[in-house]
Structures are given as C-alpha cells and as structure tokens.
Amino acid sequence: xxxxxxxxxxxxxxxxxxxxxxxxxxxxxxxxxxxxxxxxxxxxxxxxxxxxxxxxxxxxxxxxxxxxxxxxxxxxxxxxxxxxxxxxxxxxxxxxxxxxxxxxxxxxxxxxxxxxxxxxxxxxxxxxxxxxxxxxxxx
Length: 139
Known about the structure:
Blueprint: H1 4-49, H2 56-72, H3 78-99, H4 104-123
Helix pairs in contact: 1-2, 1-4, 2-3
C-alpha cells in the first residue's frame, strides 16, 4: 500500500511549483507590458514633436514584446511570434544604428502599428463567453 502522507506531500510540492510559476508568468506580463509602454511613449513623443530617437526605445520595445508574449501566449505559435519579433527588432535596430538615428517612418511604424494592432485586437476579435450569468435587476 502507498502511504497517503507521501502522496499529500507530493501534491503540496506540485501546488507550490504551480503557484511559483504563476508568479513568474505574472511578472513576465507586467515587466514586458511596462517596457513596451515606456518605449512606445518615447517613440510617440519623438514622432509627434519631430525630435530624434536613437535605437534604445526600439530595444526596450522589442525586448518587452518578447517578454510579454512569453508570459501571455500558451499556444503553438508562441515561439514563431517571439522569433519574428526578435528578428524584426534586431533588423530595425541594426538599420537605425547604421544611419545614426531613427527616421520618422521607423518611429511611426512602431507607434501606429501598435495602435492598429491593439485596435484590431480590441474591436475585431471575438469576445470570450461570460463565465457568470448577469444578475437580475432589482425589483
């Protein structure tokens, strides 16, 4: 016979590991989102005011994008998205470093591309089903 206390200890260890993993995933979502937003705001200011931007906001944006995708996506296309973001980020950063500073179209590509992507995600993708039925109105 198996000892029930050993079985409970193994279950407790798995629950602790699962909870620790949830904390790591939440941290990845938070750090990635903050890096993307801060870099996006720097690029938005640079686009709207016509000031120069070097390669660093792009570095922060694409690193934040990879971290955010790693924390949020669980499907099979997680790694192709991360690879595409890394490759396009490295290509754009190499191009910007070779000419000295980012041109308007490069800054606009990230700023307006992010706006379009978020708009598509918010308004066109289907909404998940509600898990709780709405409550009845008071009589």
